[in-house]
Amino acid sequence: MSKKRLVKLRFRKTKSRRGTGGAFFLDFNNPKTGKRVRISLGHGSYERAKRQQLRKEVELGSFDAGGCEGGRQRLSDIMIVYLQANKSMAAMTRDKTIRAFDYLIEVVGDIMLEKFDYSHAEAFQNFFVAKGFAPPTVNSYCKSISPVFSWAIRHQWIFVNPFVSVSGLREAKGFVRVYEPAEFAALWRVVDSDLWRARILAAKTAGLRRAEVLNLCRGDIDERSGVIRVQPKAKTSTTWRWRIKDHDAREVPLVPELAALLKKLGNALDDDQPYLMISGHVYHNKLDARMRGRLSDVARLCPDWQFSAEFSQLCKSAKISNATFHDLRRTVITEWLESGLQPHEVMQLAGHSSIETTMKYYTATRKTLLEKANKASSFALAGVA
């Protein structure tokens, strides 16, 4: 690997009442302006700073993968070489791979590739399980990293992909948590703000995910046609880059009640704020974080960091247990199927990447209908007896 680093990593010491500290920063030439740029990373972790240095080199196209002897390189180096060699990779896949590798290095350390084995891969999987991640999420992180090791095998840097031996976690099938009518009515009664009413209706009537709700902009609303356009956002002066899970874009129904709430929210916000589902205070904080290079992938998915805590408090006030915001989306998907929509139609509305995901709801719906039918049959027999 080239010894010359075009992105310099430097450390600046600082003194305070707590003692001597400091932070790393990156020093490089901006290829567009030719001017020298210095970016503070805002922390003193060397391992984390090295990964950020490598990312910036790939971003600027200055990373030299020549001379890389794979097995004798660290995990962070292999990730960068892999990304450099696969520049045509979709942006969402690229972001997921980087995020997964950051977690991997956090779990096992930035060890040499040749020393990585099954125990490390298993520790990576157990890390997410211990954090309470759902089985599909755990499996997706493992699947994001596995291709990197397969790619290294093709280059004869290693001979075994440890993730091939890691069994995927299975999710219990046949049960989908939905809100009963009485539960939703109780939740609606305790909501005292238009912002949360709009958020809840967007999930309950349009089937939007949390990230889709919070990244909803004025331009996504077509009140005349009665649709919401769920579409990715580019990085502009007023928006941050955001990708949709599974699909590039889709259209979902816009009910009049939600349209009225969105119009009311839009009128209360500054004209230069495109986002409808976050407050002006949160919006300007996120813009400021982006300018300082501190807007993380997690912040793009959930710009309002108090979202989960506030929704949990609403459920507690409504005396609803074991329910999440995502269950509102599950509820409307189930209702679409119960209303007679075909699975492939619901798949398009929900933005599922495969029909198997939609069929999970279809199976649960059929089970619910059979239970209702059994109860009705029992009553009929009781009447005859």
Could you walk me through the main structural features you see in this protein, from its secondary elements to its overall organization?
The protein is built from 15 helices and 6 strands. The chain has helices spanning 46-60, 75-85, 91-108, 118-130, 135-154, 181-190, 194-206, 210-214, 256-268, 280-291, 297-301, 307-317, 326-338, 343-350, 355-384, and strands at residues 8-16, 19-29, 36-40, 221-222, 227-230, 250-253. Strands 1-2-3 form a 3-stranded antiparallel sheet, with helices on one face. A 3-stranded antiparallel sheet has the order 4-5-6. Strand 4 (221-222) and strand 5 (227-230) form a beta hairpin. Helix 1 runs parallel beside helix 2 (75-85). The N and C termini lie far apart (84 Å). It comes from Anaerohalosphaera lusitana.
Q: What is the number of independent domains?
A: 3
Q: What is the helical fraction, as a range of percent?
A: 40-55%
Poorly predicted regions: none
CATH class of the largest domain: Mainly Alpha
Q: Per DSSP, what share of the residues sits in E-state strands of 2 or more residues?
A: 5-15%
The shape is globular
Which fold does the CATH topology of the largest domain refer to?
hpI Integrase, Chain A
Kindly report the spatial arrangement of strands forming the biggest sheet.
Answer: 1-2-3
**On the 0-100 scale, what is the average pLDDT?**
83
CATH superfamily of the largest domain: Intergrase catalytic core
| Major sheet details | 3 strands, antiparallel
Distance between the termini: 84 Å
How many helix segments?
15
* CATH architecture heading of the largest domain: Orthogonal Bundle
Q: What structural class do helix, strand and pairing data support? A: mainly alpha
Order of helices and strands: EEEHHHHHHHHEEEHHHHHHH
**What is the number of E strands?**
6
Organism: Anaerohalosphaera lusitana
InterPro entries: DNA_brk_join_enz, Integrase-like_cat_sf, Integrase_catalytic, Integrase_recombinase_N, Tyrosine_recombinase_XerCD
Protein name: Site-specific tyrosine recombinase XerC
Domain Tyr recombinase: 174-375
